[in-house]
Design goal:
Helix 3 packs parallel to helix 5. This protein folds into three domains: about 200 residues, MFS general substrate transporter like domains (Growth Hormone, Chain: A, Up-down Bundle), CATH 1.20.1250.20; about 70 residues, no CATH class; about 250 residues, MFS general substrate transporter like domains (Growth Hormone, Chain: A, Up-down Bundle), CATH 1.20.1250.20. A two-stranded antiparallel ribbon has the order 1-2. The chain contains 19 helices and two strands. The chain has about 550 residues and is mainly alpha-helical. GO terms for molecular function: dipeptide transmembrane transporter activity; tripeptide transmembrane transporter activity. It is a multi-pass membrane protein. Keywords: Membrane, Transmembrane, Transmembrane helix. It comes from Cucurbita maxima (Pumpkin).
């Protein structure tokens, strides 16, 4: 609620209250969002290496709460905002002072720092509550991330409807004050549950482990690998049992790294690593090509709280004679379609696909991700067509050069299909992404694995800033700019078509990478037990029918 209460309407605050232009405000939103989503790498490192997930989450929550408090002050005190200005061309308005910008963005980035510690750890703490070796709990864990996202989006729904309306029509002080209070209450609820949690201790820096494997492999690159993997350096099962860890057998993929485990009479961890360390490093490295393919879908998502919202400001937002829908409230339809899609996926689609594939998940995580990527291409094609229609209406009504801010005679609900489809795509790509990077990460690096999915969103936001600035600059130099402060004179339809092409290229790259991806072996037999159970269910009716005959 706190994050989406800010990010959803941030572009409106930056343009209307801090008097920034379209490109500058959109880039400030995506740069901040990018930082929010890339900071989890730091939070995951601190959790896995030093403080553990629980303590990291508590400290980060306190930083988040402080940032939200400062942000509420920044939007409340008149001395921390420039004077009001109704001119559509924000270049004619008095800009915010250095102090005003410093306080506002300082509070924003303090919140980003705090979320770096909360985002990768809270979902991991939740997943840790399920026993990997208990088939029933493992089955529940397969649904956990679906219901995790379902819960999150209730907060998002409140933010994109009630909070956005309050910010636009009542005041920014209350609009930011409510999520601050909500955040404080949620921290208290989390602390109250402390005695009931399963806590996992930190197991050392994942970055150090991975670096030592790579360095040791490079140092041993001249040495021949033994034919029998059992000749490589490894500890006994009892050693891992003492640490509450899991031993992993050697695999043939990324064979070069196996050289890090060649015995050479040295106990230096930068010259000799265990097979388990090598395999953990392989697991993290194998996910990187998939991670890169998720950057583009995250760039598509960035449009929902930047350019899609700006489009909404140009349209007729009235419902009846008295109510004006806030442009950012259209993001609520992303949430609603996401909630419905997750429920349908978990309760209907998975059960149908289980019968066909015998996979406890219904389809693989990469297949689920790929379906979402196809939907992203479709979203951008639809967005381009809708924008072309909006520009046609602007031309027909002589509002291309419109500087008065008068709304076009076209309902804001024209944008509804693209927002609804984003929610459906999220149910596939975003949920699968979180579960994939958590599931495929080794047991000792789960927080880092979870941070991969968030890093994807962060880099996607930065990529959005880069693409927007570059395309805007190039098209300005070569005639009519595609993205200007006056959207009626812009060509967002071309920009969306460009993003659709990039998404299609990215999807085919993802198909190629998926074909060669090797899923990690399960540390327990729970998944196999569930798969066998599904096969038994199919065989049992057949057997009964055969006996009856």
């Amino acid at each position: 609620m706190a994050y989406y209460g800010i990010s959803t309407n941030l572009i409106i605050f930056l343009t209307k209250k801090l008097h920034q232009g379209t490109v500058a405000s959109a880039n400030n939103v995506t740069n901040w969002s990018g930082t929010v989503w890339i900071m989890p790498i730091l939070g995951a490192y601190i959790a896995d290496a030093h403080l553990g997930r629980y303590r990291t989450f508590l400290i980060a929550s306190a930083i988040c709460l402080t940032g939200m408090g400062l942000l509420t002050l920044a939007v409340s005190l008149p001395s921390l905002k420039p004077p009001p200005c109704l001119d559509v061309n924000k270049g004619n308005c008095k800009p915010a002072s250095t102090l005003q910008l410093a306080v506002f963005f300082g509070a924003l980035y303090m919140l980003a720092l705090g979320t770096g510690g909360t985002k990768p750890n809270i979902s991991t703490i939740g997943a840790d509550q399920f026993d990997e070796f208990h088939p029933k709990e493992k089955a529940q864990k397969l649904s956990f991330f679906n219901w995790w996202m379902f819960s999150i989006f209730f907060g998002t729904l409140f933010a994109t409807t009630i909070l956005v309306y309050i910010q636009d029509n009542v005041g920014w002080s209350l609009g930011y004050g409510l999520p601050t209070i909500g955040l404080a209450i949620s921290i208290l609820i989390f602390v109250a549950g402390t005695p009931f949690y399963r806590h996992k201790l930190p197991t050392g820096s994942p970055f150090t482990k991975m670096a030592s494997v790579i360095v040791a492999a490079v140092r041993n690159w001249r040495l021949p690998l033994p034919n029998d993997p059992k000749e490589l350096h490894e500890l006994g099962f009892e050693e891992y049992a003492k640490q509450g860890a899991f031993r992993i057998d050697s695999t043939p993929s990324l064979r070069f790294l196996n050289k890090a485990a060649i015995r050479r009479g040295s106990s230096d961890s930068w010259k000799l690593c265990t097979v388990t360390q090598v395999e953990e490093t392989k697991q993290m490295l194998r996910m990187i090509p998939v991670l890169i393919c998720t950057f583009m879908p995250s760039t598509m998502l960035a449009q929902t709280h930047t350019l899609f919202i700006k489009q909404g400001t140009t349209l007729d937002r009235s419902i009846g004679s008295h109510f004006q829908i806030p442009p950012a409230s259209l993001a609520a339809f992303v949430t609603i379609s996401m909630l419905l899609s997750v429920v349908i996926y978990d309760r209907l689609f998975v059960k149908i696909m289980q019968r066909i594939t015998k996979n406890p998940r219904g389809i693989t995580l990469l297949q689920r991700m790929g379906i979402g990527m196809i939907l992203h291409v479709l979203i951008m094609i639809i967005a381009s067509r809708v924008e072309r229609h909006r520009l046609d209406v602007a031309r027909q009504n002589g509002q291309v050069g419109n500087g008065s801010g008068q709304a076009l005679p076209l309902t804001i609900f024209t944008l509804l299909p693209q927002f609804m489809l984003v929610g459906v795509a999220d149910a596939f790509t975003e949920v699968a992404k979180i579960e994939f990077f958590y599931d495929q990460a080794p047991e000792s690096m789960k927080s880092l694995g979870t941070s991969y999915s968030m890093t994807s969103i962060g880099i996607g936001n930065f990529l959005s800033s880069f693409l927007l600035s570059t395309v805007s600059s190039i098209t300005h130099k070569h005639g009519n700019g595609w993205i200007m402060n006056n959207l009626n004179a812009s060509h967002l339809d071309y920009y969306y078509a460009f993003l659709a092409v990039l998404s299609a290229i990215n999807f085919f790259l993802f198909l190629l990478i998926s074909k060669f991806y090797v899923y990690k072996a399960e540390v327990s037999g729970s998944i196999k037990a569930l798969a066998d159970e599904l096969k038994d269910k199919k065989l049992k009716p057949f057997s009964e029918k055969h006996t009856h005959t």
